[in-house]
């Protein structure tokens, strides 16, 4: 049986401040490093082919979660390029006319100096299409990147901005790749985190919490 496991990187200070990170290379916080270490028990003894985004917050998560493995870095696993929105909080973005213009159609329209979700979906689909026939591939990457892969694997197109999947820091999402179509086995699984580590996971902004579904699957 073949599996593809997608892991969102652990928490950073910018996550907790609500700042858009995108391609900014922000390191893990101390709490983030503890979250990444907590992943070790889930994969101990498993033979995996490990990939990572080249951004340090993903690389560090991969190295801490999979000791003894050297991740294969692939730029196609990088986060969405948010262009001029990067480094800004929601309050700062709300004052920008271009932010509201982009939110109307982020799938087709790129933010100033950045890329659209359609471009992201194309590059992550190309990454998936080139994977070797390994029993268990693990990719440590970013929320937008994982959402793009989920959309690609489930055949979703032009995924609406307000109906995306919410993924917590170090969440585990897994597909079974046997059979004619990929099977989503679990989504946003955070069962490896102790309550005190889970408390560092930032919630979505209030405006999005009211509009977006909260999908979370945990092991019993």
Question: Can you give a write-up of this model?
Answer:
Strands 3-2-4-1-5-6 form a six-stranded mixed sheet. Mean pLDDT is 89; it is low at 206-220. The protein has ten helices and six strands. The protein has a single domain (3-209), classed as Phosphoglycerate mutase-like (Rossmann fold, 3-Layer(aba) Sandwich), CATH 3.40.50.1240. It is α/β, with parallel strands linked by helices and 220 residues long. The longest helix has 13 residues, at 117-129. Helix 2 (30-38) crosses helix 4 and helix 7 crosses helix 8. It is globular and about 50 Å long.
Question: Which labels suit this protein?
Answer:
220 residues; alpha/beta; Rossmann fold; 10 helices
Q: What is shown here, in short?
A:
By secondary structure, this protein is of the alpha/beta class. It has helices at residues 13-17, 30-38, 40-43, 56-65, 90-94, 97-103, 117-129, 143-154, 195-198, 206-209, and strands at 3-8, 49-52, 72-73, 136-141, 172-176, 183-189. The chain is globular.
Distance between the termini: 22 Å
| Gyration radius over CA | 16 Å
CATH fold-type name: Rossmann fold
What average pLDDT do the residues reach? 89
Number of DSSP strands?
A: 6
Q: Kindly estimate the percentage of residues that lie in beta strands according to DSSP.
A: 5-15%
What number of structural domains do the residues give?
1
* Oligomeric state of shown chains: single chain
Overall 3D geometry? globular
CATH class: Alpha Beta
**CATH H-level superfamily:** Phosphoglycerate mutase-like
């Amino acid at each position: 049986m073949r599996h593809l496991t997608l892991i969102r990187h652990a928490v950073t200070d910018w996550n907790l401040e609500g700042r858009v990170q995108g391609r900014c290379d922000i390191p893990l916080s101390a709490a983030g490093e503890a979250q990444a270490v907590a992943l070790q028990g889930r994969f101990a003894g498993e033979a995996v082919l490990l990939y990572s985004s080249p951004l340090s917050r993903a690389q560090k998560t991969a190295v801490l979660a999979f000791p003894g493995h050297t991740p294969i870095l692939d730029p196609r696993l990088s986060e969405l390029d948010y262009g001029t929105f990067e480094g800004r909080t929601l309050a700062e973005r709300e004052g920008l006319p271009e932010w509201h213009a982009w939110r109307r159609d982020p799938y087709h329209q790129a933010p100033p100096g950045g890329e659209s979700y359609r471009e992201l979906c194309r590059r992550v689909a190309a990454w998936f299409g080139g994977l070797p026939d390994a029993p268990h591939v693990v990719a440590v990457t970013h929320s937008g990147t994982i959402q793009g892969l989920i959309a690609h694997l489930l055949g979703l197109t032009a995924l609406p901005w307000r109906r995306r999947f919410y993924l917590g820091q170090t969440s585990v999402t897994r597909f079974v790749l046997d059979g004619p179509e990929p099977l989503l086995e679990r989504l946003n699984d955070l069962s490896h985190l102790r309550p005190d580590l889970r408390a560092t996971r930032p919630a979505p902004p209030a405006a999005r919490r009211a509009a977006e579904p909260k999908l979370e699957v945990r092991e019993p």
